[in-house]
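Practice set, problem 2.
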Amino acid sequence: MLYEQRDHKWVYLFAEGGTEMKSLLGGKGANVAEMTQAGLPVPPGFTITTEACNAYTQYENQFPEGMWSQAQIALTQVEADTGKQFGDRQKPLLVSVRSGAAISMPGMMDTVLNLGLNDETVEGLAKLTDNRRFALDAYRRFIAMFGNIVMKVPNEKFSRALERFKAQTSSGRDTDLSAGQLDELITVYKRIIFTDRHGDEFPQDPYEQLRMAIAAVFDSWNTRRAIDYRRVHRIPDDLGTAVNVQAMVFGNMGWDSGTGVAFTRNPASGEKKVFGEYLLNAQGEDVVAGIRTPKSIHEMADELPESYGQLMSITRRLEAHYRDMQDIEFTIEQGKLWILQTRTGKRTGAAAVKIAWPAVCPPALGPPPARWSSPPMTPSATTNKAIPSSWCVTRPAPTIFTAWPWPKQFSRRAAA
């Protein structure tokens, strides 16, 4: 399909979307838009549609006409919402650039954080936060992530450099690097990019950084690992990925800040209890990269009790709204909780049955029998199918569990 480019809408602010636009905004963009409209604490931003990704591929890796200008206009609205300016030396706006297909592909697509930093805006960020070490830490993270994801420099080169600097501290942790050491590490990172890219330097223009990052997310849809993942999970190639550009909030601004992930239920057992991990004074990649050992989400009740209470309330609200177990990413910036995204949580077969049983079958049947602790089909293979209304449905069946062959003795008709 060739898209008519003139006057086509490629970009939607979060306030303009919703879950009914999932195929266009991707799962992440649709859910963030839904949370924004529900009044949850979500950083402002916008989504570039899956149609733009397909058009980018069709037109030989060129942005479709009008997309870039629409993205720039949307960015001005984010500036107005945050009171910051993209590329400004005094109050710089930094953004994250994340992929988000209509069907979740965990670990397959790319993310860039802290975009907008350069040698000048990092000084503005330092003055704005009165924390030079934090600003330099954010900058070195951005250079490494941008260098790896966008400029294709092997991540191992940045990791080895970081390990050498960490070895100079008493504890061997990145949180103990001084501002001076981080400044040196930034210089080393830039040299790594220059050497590996045969003279190409790390870009200092924030708008060029954004343009390159959006293109890199579109390109990641057609990487070998993404294609192989789609083949295994039978995901169509023409879905495309959306790009979510969102104002940054920082979990590495001190020990009253942090980041983490939380499931509204235990994904292994299905127990109705929030399950997750978090790290203080860290950014999102620290949790998933194994750089530091995360803590159980419930330890937050002692360290950041107000944020913990707010998070528990939001997890209940999200599960009730989506009528499904949710996988939530969050950041705490100087005591303020922000929800970055939510999506349907992956779970084991046994957990799927335990979660679905009370929502689908009458209480008189009791808990699911032990011999049905795991369904004959995996949850991913049955998603979005409806259980027949003539079976044990006492209220609308959620999408967390779907029709696999129920034994007749457990149906409402048999019970009657």
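Problem 2, part (b): a different protein.
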Amino acid sequence: MLLESDGLKKSGRSWRRSMTRFLIRSQVLMCALLISRAASFANTIMYTVVDMGALPGGHSGLFGLNQAGIAVGWSLNSSYESRAVLFGQGGLWNLDTAGNTNSSQARGINNLGQVVGTSFIGPGAEATIWSGGAASTLGTLGGTESYGLAINDHGQVVGSSTTADGEARAFVSNGNGLTDLQINGIWSAAYSINNLGQIVGTVEVEEGVFRAFLWDPVTGYHQLGTLGGDSSYATAINESGTIAGSSRLSNGQMRAFLYQNGVMTSLGTLGGDSSYAYGLNSAGHAVGYSTTADGQTSAFLFRDGMLFDLNALIGPGSGWILDEAFAINDLGQIVGTGWHDGQRRGFLLQPAAPSFPGAEAPEPGTWVMIATGLLLIGARWYRRNGASAGHGCPSHRKDAASRLIPAFRQRKV
């Protein structure tokens, strides 16, 4: 029995030595594979940039986007006057062909292809709908100016217009004149409307103090509050009622926010002291722009609780600097304005295929952390089993790898 016991001890020690060697070799091999994988992911391109082009004046910008990927904005003509343009259907199209405007700009497009914006005619401005090759101005609330800022799939337009006494008021229109939303304040503007007729915007409640608002066709006007500062601005609302915008903090800095179920949540920044959200899709993914740690401005995407610098998600040799993002659709396409070859240009970001089905590419640092975690598992096993006395196989333990592997990392908010 003594000989049998000694044999079991020797057998156990031999088994542990073999397992230790196997684990160490496996971890080293895994580290090499993961670090190699990290290097390949370092060059992953999550978006491709589509240049919208420009009219002969060379500069352009995009503000609106529908679910079909058709975008609208502005471009300079040969006289360097801004013209409302549509990008899609094989090219860039000048919407302002009537010849009676000083300039124009398109701000939104619905899923029927109706475009809303503003035409500057003489000394004034008028909210305008472009549809079927024709332009229709919507008039004003009695003043000399109105600005069309958004349109839903029912053709309802929202924006801001001056009244006869020169005050600016948020309005809604069904295509036949403007209706004042009757929001009390010094100045107000409506920036977005969903298909339920819910409208968001901003009202100046006292000199220099602004508040984001929601206007509901059933329950009426609601102020949304702030992130601790004196002002807030609501710029987008989706079909589920999630709202995007920006607000001042108590220290005066600006922060992009999402507003859901009565709660306003900061989206953080890209390392700088301010951020602004402008576009929102059905999934609650928001786009906008933020200052960075070096004081520059960069377009961002917010999704899954994280803020991403869009310049880090395109090819490093693209030649683009993406300053501002203004709209995102349910396909994940994004439009905005940046710089390319020294010119101000509108861009459309087209999502690239993920690196493997159903997953996004982690940062290289994440793979290194995974490898480190696996090495720690092996070392921990060796300390507990390989270097200790005992008999037979180690007891079965719950795999700890799932607790050690970190989640996909980007800029945390």
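Answer key, part (b): Helices lie at 2-41, 364-386, 401-404. DSSP finds three helices and 29 strands in the chain.
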